[in-house]
Amino acid sequence: MPEPIQTAAARGPERSRRRPATRGAPRGFTLTEMLVSMAVLALILVLTTNMVSGTQKTLRTARSSAAQFREARRAFETVTRTIGQATLNTYWDYDDPQTPTQYLRQSELHFVTGPAEDLLDSEDAYTHGIFFVAPFGFAGSDATGENIGTDPYRNLESLLNAWGYYIKFNDTDDDAPPFIRDLQQGNPPVVSVKKGFRLMEYRQPSEELTIYKDKLREKDNDGRSSFYQWFREELEENSRVVADNIIALVVRPVVSEQDARKSSRDPWWIAPEYTYDSRQFQWGGRNDLSLTSRNQVPPVLELTLVAVDESSYIAYERRNPSSDPRTVISDLLENRFKEAEKLTEDLDSLELGLSDLGISHRVFSASVGLRTAKWSE
Amino acid sequence: MSSSSPRRAAAAGPFRGRTGGGFTLVEILTVLAVIAIMISLAAPLIGDYPEGRELASEADNVESQMAYARLIAVSSGAPVELRFYLEPVTETGPGAGTEFFRASQVMVTRDDGVFYPDGRAQRFAGKTIILGDPDFSSIMEGEPEGPDPNARRTKNGAMSGKQYKSIRFLPDGSTNLGRGGDENWFLTFVAWKPTYTGGEAAVGPGTTFPNFVTLQIDPFTGKVRRYEPGR
Lengths: 377, 231
Fold this sequence. Notes:
- Chain A has twelve helices and eleven strands.
- By secondary structure, chain A is of the alpha+beta class.
- Chain B is an alpha+beta fold.
C-alpha cells in the first residue's frame, strides 16, 4: 500500500503540468495546440521579417541618397573651384587709338552670368548659366586622349579655355553604353531611360578657342546675342555632364558687405536681375551698371545648386505616371530666380514645392571669391 | 472522459499503439526537417534575390573605390590606379577554374612612379564577377596587364601573381581612358553561373545574366553613372 502512494507523489508535479485528462501513458500535442503554436510562430516570423526588410529599405534609401548627394557635392566643388579662376586679362588702354580722349580698362575676353534663357539660344534653358574664360590648359591630348607623350600642348598648363555651366534636361540617354541603349528600347524596357535635369559643363579646348576671332572689343551695337557666339556655336559638342539630377544653378554676383555699405546699396546691386555681363556697356546702353561691370569680373559670386534624390524622383514618376516630371519641375522653377533680392524667398518656396511633391533634395550654397577681381566702382 | 475515448482509440492505430491523442515532439521535428529540406531544394527556383543584393553591394563598393581613387588623385596631385584582378572561380560547374575579374584594389604611386597597394585587395562577395566581354565591359577589352610584383601579399590572397586590368585617375580629375567622340567606358557586374565559361556573354531578361549592374565612367570628369534592370 505505501508504495503506490510514493509513486503518485513523485509523479504528481510532473503530471499536473499536462492535461489532467491523460491516464498514465505519455501523450503528444493535439492538432489544436500545433495550429496555435504555428500561428504564433508565423506571427513572430512575419513581424521580424517586416522589421528586417523595413530596416533594409531605410538603409538602401539612405545609402542611395548619400551616394546621390556625394555626386552633387563633388560637382559643386568642381564648379566653385573652376569659377574662382575666371579671368578677363584686363589692361589699360586709350578708349580710341585714333583720337584718344581717356584711359580705360580694356579686355579681349568676356565674363557673363544670368538667366539661361538669355544666354543660351534654346528653349531647353533652366535657371541660370555662367560662361567665362580661365587658364586651365585644357588642350590637345587633354581633349582627345591621343598622343599623350608627344602632345605639343603638353607643358602649356595656363592656356586659356572658354568654360561654362548650365542646366539641361535629358530624356534620351544617348550616351549610355550601347547594350544598355538596346535594353532601354525593348518593350517593356529592361533598363529605364534616365530622364532628368543635369548640370552641364561647357569646356572648349584651347586650340579651338574662338573668342579672339569674334573681336568682341570692336563690336558696336551688333545686338546682345552677337557677344555670345563664342560659347553658343559649339555648345553641344563641347559639353560634358558634371552631375545628374541637378535642377537649379543660381549665380548671384555681389560686392563685399563693406563696398555695399560704402555706397549704401544692396550687395547685389551689380546684378539686380542676376545678369552680369562684362560687355553690357556695348549692348546695354550707358548706365551705372554697365559702366561698373565694364571689363571687370564681379568680386564675389553667391553660388547655389539644388540637387534632387534620384530614387525619390523615380518614386514620384511611378506614383504619378500621367504627369511629366519635367513640366512639374520647370513649373516650380518658372518665375523664380528672376530678382536678386528674392533669392532666399525663391529658394524657400522651391524647397517647399519639392517637399510637397515628396521629392527629397539638398541645396548647396557657397560664396566664391574671384581671384582675378580687382573691384572698383 | 467518455467522449475522448473513441478519439484516442482512433488515433492509436497509425501511431503505433500509443494512447496519446496528439503528435509527439519527434514526429513534429521530423515533419519540420522534411519541410526545411523541401524549402532548401526549392529556394534556387524562387529567385536570385540574395545574389542580386550581393551584386548591388559589390557594385556599390567599386563605385566608392572609384570616387576614392579620384579624390586621392586630385588631392595628392599624383595618378591613382584602380585594378581589377583576374582570379579563377572556385565553385563547381563546367565553368569552374575559369578566370574572371573578381577582386579590386586601389594603387597609389610614390615619387618613384611605381604603384603600391593602398590597403587590401577586395575580393567580390559570393559569385560576383565583372564580365570580360567587351560588349558589356568595354574597359576589359584587350590583353590584361601584369602580373605586378609590387602588388604585395594581402589578407585576401597574393595579388602579385595575378593579371589585371586597370583605370588610372589623373590629378585633374580625369582618367586615362580614351576620349574620342564614340568611346564609351563601362563595366558590368553579374553573378557567375556554373554554366558560364567566359567569352561571349548575354545580358538581359531571360538570358544568361538577368541580374546585372553596369557602371559607366566619363573619361573627362571621372563621373560614374549606374544602370541596372528595372531602374
